[in-house]
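Chain A, query sequence.
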Amino acid sequence: MSWALVVGLAALTYGSRALALVLLPEPGAGLRRALDRMPAPLFAGLAIVSLAGAESGPAPGAVWAAAVGALAASPSRNLLVVLGGGLVGYVVGAWLI
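Chain A, predicted structure.
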């Protein structure tokens, strides 16, 4: 993959998001409440797919520890804090298991 392709894809991704923020109207109160509740189910779905594994069986113990760390940090509703909790959980899990 060339750097020009990476830069082009990044510009397309962030440019389309910036245009949407500028051009689209503010969502209504009902839609805003629904959108505010979406991150938890989306993260839970991604976590289940990661933990259940594919044909090779369940995920290793360190991955489960990362999920527990991210889950413990999830009440903050801050993506950086949740990612940090998952990273700490993974490191602790890899060290203990």
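The chain has a mean pLDDT of 84. Helices lie at 3-23, 29-37, 39-52, 61-73, 79-96.
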